[in-house]
Amino acid sequence: MWYDFTNAIKALAAESGFANITLLHLIMIVLALFFLYLAIAKKYEPLLLVPIAFGMLLANLPLGGLMHPELWDAQPLDYGAILHNGGLLDLLYLGVKLGIYPPLIFLGIGAMTDFGPLIANPKSLLLGAAAQFGIFGTYIGAMAFGAFTPQQAGSIAIIGGADGPTAIWLTSKLAPELLGPIALAAYSYMALVPVIQPPIMKALTTKKEREVIMKQLRPVSKLEKILFPIVVCVLVILIIPSSAPLVGMLMLGNLFRESGVVERLNDTAQNALINIVTIFLGLTVGSTASADKLSQPGFGIQALLIIGLGLVAFCIGTASGVLFGKLMYIFSGGKINPLIGSAGVSAVPMAARVSQKVGQEANPQNFLLMHAMGPNVAGVIGSAVAAGVLLSMLG
Amino acid sequence: MWYDFTNAIKALAAESGFANITLLHLIMIVLALFFLYLAIAKKYEPLLLVPIAFGMLLANLPLGGLMHPELWDAQPLDYGAILHNGGLLDLLYLGVKLGIYPPLIFLGIGAMTDFGPLIANPKSLLLGAAAQFGIFGTYIGAMAFGAFTPQQAGSIAIIGGADGPTAIWLTSKLAPELLGPIALAAYSYMALVPVIQPPIMKALTTKKEREVIMKQLRPVSKLEKILFPIVVCVLVILIIPSSAPLVGMLMLGNLFRESGVVERLNDTAQNALINIVTIFLGLTVGSTASADKLSQPGFGIQALLIIGLGLVAFCIGTASGVLFGKLMYIFSGGKINPLIGSAGVSAVPMAARVSQKVGQEANPQNFLLMHAMGPNVAGVIGSAVAAGVLLSMLG
Amino acid sequence: MWYDFTNAIKALAAESGFANITLLHLIMIVLALFFLYLAIAKKYEPLLLVPIAFGMLLANLPLGGLMHPELWDAQPLDYGAILHNGGLLDLLYLGVKLGIYPPLIFLGIGAMTDFGPLIANPKSLLLGAAAQFGIFGTYIGAMAFGAFTPQQAGSIAIIGGADGPTAIWLTSKLAPELLGPIALAAYSYMALVPVIQPPIMKALTTKKEREVIMKQLRPVSKLEKILFPIVVCVLVILIIPSSAPLVGMLMLGNLFRESGVVERLNDTAQNALINIVTIFLGLTVGSTASADKLSQPGFGIQALLIIGLGLVAFCIGTASGVLFGKLMYIFSGGKINPLIGSAGVSAVPMAARVSQKVGQEANPQNFLLMHAMGPNVAGVIGSAVAAGVLLSMLG
Amino acid sequence: MNSLIVTLVGMFVVFCALLLIILCIVIYSRLIRIKAQKPNNHEYSSVKQNNNVQKPASENNALPADSISPELLAVITAAVSACMQSTNTGYTVRSIKRIGHTTPIWNVAGRNEYILSKL
Amino acid sequence: MNSLIVTLVGMFVVFCALLLIILCIVIYSRLIRIKAQKPNNHEYSSVKQNNNVQKPASENNALPADSISPELLAVITAAVSACMQSTNTGYTVRSIKRIGHTTPIWNVAGRNEYILSKL
Amino acid sequence: MNSLIVTLVGMFVVFCALLLIILCIVIYSRLIRIKAQKPNNHEYSSVKQNNNVQKPASENNALPADSISPELLAVITAAVSACMQSTNTGYTVRSIKRIGHTTPIWNVAGRNEYILSKL
Ligand code: NA
Ligand code: NA
Ligand code: NA
User: Fold this and answer.
1) Does D contact A via 3+ CB–CB distances below 8 Å?
2) What local confidence, expressed as pLDDT, does residue E85 receive?
3) Residue-wise over B78-97: b if at least 16 C-beta within 10 A, else e?
4) Of the listed ranges A282-291, B28-37, B208-217, D59-68, the one predicted with least confidence
5) What is the model's pLDDT at position F1?
6) What residues of chain B lie within 8 A of the CB of A273, using their CB?
7) Looking at residue F70, what is its pLDDT?
8) Chain centroid to CA A164: how far?
9) Contact between residue C260 and residue C222 where contact means Cβ atoms under 8 Å apart
10) Higher-confidence residue: D101 or A120?
11) F17 touches A at CB < 8 Å
12) What CA–CA distance (Å, rounded) separates B17 from C215?
């Protein structure tokens, strides 16, 4: 009997994580803990980074069986096999793979977003367009390395959109094998906006420009706010049909908000629904960053390049936004403060606050927040359009 | 390079919605905008009509790829193809096709409904039964046109039940190709109850009848309220097993409400869950009304007939409810006000309010709201039973 | 025409539940009503028992078509057939079969649980381990009857863990054919903890032991509380990888709670999400207890044995917890009150309150609630580990 | 099937079903009320009494141990009048009843523990 | 495809799309504001007027029939100042407007019925 | 497998797992508390101090800049006493702490903007 007992223990021990853990697993676990630290102690975009980092942790505890990356490498996907053999996170990952979660998150974001400042000052949209040069400029850079396919390069470049769900949506369509590192880079840099942007903004503007006080925005009527989501939805989807899932849901959410007749749906879209989807999305996106990936030849280098290129994308986006702001400063005869251009990268509302803060440093009377919210929400639309263009051209 | 650039732009332009839009698309878009206007400016059942109209809008912006009607025409359905090729709304539409959403909405409705007035005055149930003649009478009419199969005629007739989720549930089983127009007609006419009903009610009653003041309802004990959903659920499902999904969930929701021991579940059933399902249901039902449909020969005529027959169904339902009310007025020796009969069509709580309003016009001392709530909630049970009968006989 | 009418009525009558009901259906309906009575009038774990009993009721109204047990007997499962032919509850049951619901419930439980008392007094974990002897002791007993396979015996034994979602999770993996009776037994006995435990506790302890006043727990810092879920998750999954779905989600929920940076997700995990999943889980688990089961040879006897063995499991668990508490009383020199040992069976927070109550009976100055919460939440971890071990050895 | 038959059968079944429900409601309601009047039955009669005899809260001048403080009453009144979209000229709060706890049991336990830990 | 082309096309399309949106916003905003100034248009002008002319609530000394009671104002002020994470030294509540009912219509109906049943 | 073996192995593994957790908790708790006592560590010690030394709010006579107004305190007290299902004779609110914002960050931003737009 003692023999049976020790045998059973040995069998369990052989199946335990301790017996099967590798150095790569340990590296990934440490990385996951590092991201948890950033999310909790440093408050880096915790709503997404806590689930992402925890998903990464779970996927790297050996034999947990929550995620089976091999199921997702099949071409075409075998949904029967996923249902029969998938773990919890495989099944929840279906929502990413089928492109359901990011649009539902956009529904909630739409319900939370006030496009009023943008409607009051439609020129802001140009700044939201200019900042997307961060995406396309980085695409050139990523292709130049020769380490990426065009699809992968496009997915990396979209980090420069500073919009997490857009990045996840596009990557899950173009280069799902890079989903983990791209999502981690996107959310990390979004959290670092207050660190990354100010030096660039100051380097590219003169103190005189930063001191410009903009005139107050006109009030926007309810009807204008109701028409906005409908008009934008129709126009953008007619121009770039592939952006329909993101733009359509964003604008539906905003219509819930502005119509004022579906308060129940508005509330659920921006609370229960977006939160449930955020948990599932974060967990499963994080779980794609498993040690098996790191063991693939070249993946480590790719991951490092993603980190570098993501930062480049953010910097280019910020710079092009500010530079376009300077252009508008000139053409408007000094009425527009170029600092609001950097808010065009999205990262709502962080980037707008950075504009406000840098502006107030130059001139304590300066109050740019509302003016920067225009380019800021325009950046969300801009990067959704950019994602649609990349999907059309590379998908 | 300029050549490449123009070529790429041309390719994108050829894939844009502007290049692919047809007159039919435009008509459908204008229709969608019209329903959005009714929902927002006129507050026509906005909780469902806003998502339905927006879904219709999204489905008619060409090449958006959110909905692929051709996937749903296959016999039998190919779920693998839907997962591989479906867009966002195709995937959400699975919940309609599999019959999941309407019962979950009924769960929430059950949790919101107080059957107390019905228990206090069980005779109300007869009015809830009589008003269903709107359904079956219209069935004869729809068949008489020769333009519909019996299944389609049954789906159109159910509009007369004045109960949106029931209409969607039955139509998705009997005639999914008509889901869009039937849902739009059902919710539009439900919103028009205060316009449609009063003339019929006044035409069919004398002022003396309308002036009848009914005696106050007895209080209903908690135990009676708890037993009600259990008894109704068992009886109705034993009589018409095919009504189980609707009646079972309606009564479970009501048991959540009345039992008083599962307040958490009650709250979620009537908030987060019903709202999430409402968004998905509305969007996807609306998206079935796409231009491809309108281009099918005869569909336009069918849609117009649905609009006409839906109105007929409402009128017959109202009239038969009022006439049965007159019968009860006579048999009760003038104790029952026939105006509460029109509330039997469902459209909770609008139809009950119409009874109240018309009653108070005739006699300012008259307070019929509570008495009309009995037939009103009875109408919900009645039309669920009617839907079960139609499914049994035609399905 | 009269002939057609009577024929149609006859056809409907032949398809009605009244024509198809059997004695077994009636027995099951009465049983379902009995459990509803326990849940509502006696408040036996109503959050789960109301949906479970209602699911049982719905599944035993003949021809309702909500649940098709035959679809779930196929080996391997045919998901296509389930989508094509499944009823509402079949489709919702996918979440049980695929192992999604119990981990999501654990996510919510983690978000609701304060592990502070456990961190302040880590020795409590030993009591949470000792009480799991209720599980493994009962396994021997269940095997001794010869009526069960090892997988069935393991599923029955887990009732002794006094943890509903764990029991459902393990049973759905090892012996799904017993899911109904095991879930009913588990939740019924959890509700009976205040009746079952006190006699055992008093029989095994002296009055002197019960009078022991424990010294107040030290305050626990926020950092300790944040580290706890991470440490436990990593350790337990490394030891028993098969416990990953339960332990991983439990600890993620707790991290949501303690990190303090994702209050939105914490709120949704412990409200909307857990409530939605509870409704679906309860309904579908209940619906597996259908009359078809009872008609299988031997199932009735198995069900009776499950009821008996479940009680035995609870008693052994309570006793082993108390006895281990006595051991700790001796080794600590009388500083630990053995009454807190019975709380190790889980059934949070009922078992801890029983410890408090029995302790106060012996000594009105005694306040054991906080000290018993330690073993109580340790019991949740302990039974999740035990479930993982059983799955590894028997799965 | 002839469409007239469908209509006749449909209306017949709907009336049968709802008549059967009426029958059941009438029977069980009568049984409950008879039971409630017998003095030896306590469990549910109390529930019913509670519903029938319900006195306005304002009549209770002496606040019982577990009653509601006037401050709370003021807050509730304000909230109710906000919900009803009118000033409180139309009606006054005449009866306030505590309903059962709706908070998850563990939260309540946690809250109580927290308070106890501070005592 | 050459990566430079992708970049140029991408930026071109993004600018085109957003320029088109600007155009539409400018046009419809202007139309709405022109319409709102004509006195014969009532439906939406009232909405806009409401947004533009918005007087502080404190100026209304005489409470109209459907206004807000001072008690309710106090509760709302306290709640707002709690949300803003500061004492109410920084700002005061200058305008309170009722927004449309956000509660499900049936709940409201149920609530009203309950009250009516108690009258 | 022999059922006795399953039982022995099961209990052995459960005890091992929970013992390992005990070990880890004891170690990291000790480390944290040692660290917290060193004066040069600020980041987490402050958290712990906060938990240990917690003075009742009533002792703070001078309200600091970011504190809670008495009106708000009254509302909270009423709400708490309602939750606890008893009058406030049993206990008083001794300590109120603001917790972090739980509202979505964009909502807060929106709310602030709205207020700013009204100034
Ligand atoms: Na962007
Ligand atoms: Na009806
Ligand atoms: Na346990």
Assistant:
1) no
2) 40
3) ebeebbeebbbbbbbbbbbb
4) D59-68
5) 60
6) 272, 275-276, 279
7) 52
8) 1
9) yes
10) A120
11) no
12) 74
Task: Name the 3-class secondary structure at A243.
Answer: helix
Count of Cβ atoms closer than 10 Å to residue D38 Cβ: 9
How far is residue B61 CA from its own chain's centroid?
A: 26
Which tens digit of pLDDT belongs to each residue from B220-271? 999 999 999 999 999 999 999 999 999 999 999 999 999 999 999 999 999 9
With a CB-CB cutoff of 8 Å, which residues 32-61 of chain E face chain F? Answer: 54
Distance A319 CA to ligand 1 centre (A): 13
> Does residue D65 belong to the interface with chain F, where contact is any CB pair within 8 Å?
yes
pLDDT at residue A283 tops 90: yes
Contact between chains at C275 and B256 (C-beta distance less than 8 A): no
Q: What is the ipTM of this complex?
A: 0.83
Q: Which of the other chains make 3 or more beta carbon contacts under 8 angstroms with chain E?
A: A, B, D, F
Tokens coding C35:
């459990």
Task: Compute CA distances B388 → B140, B153, C12, D2, D51, whole Å.
Answer: 18, 15, 11, 18, 36
Please classify residue A241 by burial: count the beta carbons closer than 10 Å to its beta carbon, then call 0-12 exposed, 13-18 middle and 19+ buried.
buried
Per-residue pLDDT for C293 more than 70?
A: yes
The pLDDT > 90 percentage for chain A reads 81
Q: Does the structure show a pLDDT above 70 at C134?
A: yes
CA of A28 to the centre of ligand 1 (A): 29
**Ligand nearest to the CA of residue D18, numbered in listed order:** 2
CA D63 from centre of chain: 22
- Contact: D101, F79; criterion CB under 8 Å: no
Neighbours of E64 (CB within 10 A): 8
Lookup result for tokens 């998206």: B287
pLDDT of B281-297, one tens digit each? 999 999 988 887 777 87
The 10s digit of each residue's pLDDT in C164-180 is 999 999 999 999 989 98
Among B96-105, B321-330, C228-237, D26-35, the minimum mean pLDDT is found in: D26-35
Q: Which residues of A touch C241 (CB under 8 A)?
A: 15-17, 61-65
- Residue B65's closest CA among B103, B101, B137, B15? B15
Chain C contact set for A290 (CB, 8 A): none
CA C77 to chain centre: 25
**Which of B202, B207, B199 minimizes the C-alpha distance to B363?**
B207
C-beta of residue C240 within 8 angstroms of C-beta of residue A65? no
pLDDT digits (tens, 9 = 90+) for C223-258: 999 999 999 999 999 999 999 999 999 999 999 999
Query: B27 by DSSP, 3-state: which?
Result: helix
Q: What's the mean pLDDT when you consider all of chain A?
A: 92
Q: Are C148 and C156 in contact (CB under 8 A)?
A: yes
Tell me the C-alpha distance between D66 and F81, whole Å.
11
Closest CA relative to residue B385, chosen from B231, B248, B191: B248
B49 close contact with E: CB closer than 8 A: no
CB A128 within 8 A of CB A382: yes
C267 in contact with F, Cβ within 8 Å: yes
CA–CA distance, A388 with A380 (Å, rounded to integer): 12
Task: Determine the Cα–Cα distance for residues A178 and A165; give it in Å rounded to an integer.
Answer: 15
> Would you call A65 and C242 a contact, using CB atoms and an 8 Å cutoff?
yes
What the block records as the tokens of B58 is 């999204």
Count other C-beta atoms under 10 Å from residue A185's C-beta.
23
**CA atoms of B28 and C358, how far apart (whole Å):** 71
Contact E67, D87 (CB under 8 A): yes
Q: Confirm if A375 and A131 have CB atoms less than 8 A apart.
A: yes
User: Across the interface, do D117 and C370 touch by the CB < 8 Å criterion?
Assistant: yes
Q: C382 vs A18, B174, C132, C348, F19, CA distance in Å?
A: 19, 51, 7, 13, 11
